[in-house]
Amino acid sequence: MRKRRDRGLSEEEIAVWAHVARSVKAFSGRTIPGPAPIASPPDAEAPKPAPQSAPPPAPVPKPALAPLVPLERRTLQALRRGRQGPEAVIDLHGLRQDEAHDRLRAFLFREQGKGARLVLVITGKGAAGTTFGGDERGVLKRVVPHWLRLPDLRPIVLGFEDAALNHGGTGALYVRLRRPKEGAA
Hints:
Blueprint: H1 11-22, H2 73-81, E1 88-91, H3 97-114, E2 118-122, H4 139-149, E3 157-162, E4 172-177
Parallel strand pairs: 1-2
Antiparallel strand pairs: 2-4, 3-4
């Protein structure tokens, strides 16, 4: 879409506008606007802004986080049928959130360093009635997926999904890890 340039009206355009304005009756309580100022001739130079010593620095864009990708259908099928298993397992049962978060981070970084591509994180389903209200279940089950989406783990987490029933079902997650970058150690 072309950007409209604000320019004044020529004398001919002002005359046409005045003729139209005389033939129009304004609504009650309203007035008809007057014509725009006459355009300056092209010879006249507009005052130039004072030159700046240096242009302001452009904001540095933050690198976009790579999107999480689901596990491939064949991989999930092999996991469900028992033909493939996770390369490592961590069980976060009974841990407080801060302990679980620290252990999960350490586990994922360690396993990626070893070259693991698929790990199992057991969160547990949680027991009903373990909080004051009795209606909250599985705090770790709820927060671990959130942690896996955070920027500090995104460089190593490629994607995750609920585990198959033989690996814990909804109380566990398959986490797919990215390959470590060359030269990073």
